[in-house]
Specification:
Strand content: 35-45%
Oligomer: single chain
Order of helices and strands: EHEEHEEEH
Number of helices: 3
Radius of gyration: 15 Å
Helix content: 25-40%
Strand order of the largest sheet: 2-3-1-4-5-6
Structural class: alpha+beta
Shape: elongated
Distance between the termini: 21 Å
Length: 104
Amino acid sequence: MFVSVIVDPGSVESSKAVTAVLMEYGFKKVQRACWEHVALPEKKLNLLKKDIDRVTDYYDSVRMYQYPVQGMLAVTEMSRKKWKRCLLRPTPDEHNELQELGKQ
């Protein structure tokens, strides 16, 4: 699964710790606070969340964009040490466009 991670650390120490975790999992830095992995297995994603939770504190926030999750885009956010996930379903028009792109 494709996973993009956006990090907004509350301190330099948290930034370094999250960076080390992401590098350990094979993520590549694509922008200042954005890391990507193009083929992260779902089992590793759950371990990644636990490791990020372990090295962050109340003032850090992390947002993950994952695709596909049950055929949808998932946005998972850790803020104030709590994880929340939202699944985004494409509209019928977008779904048809995605199917057409897949046939090309």
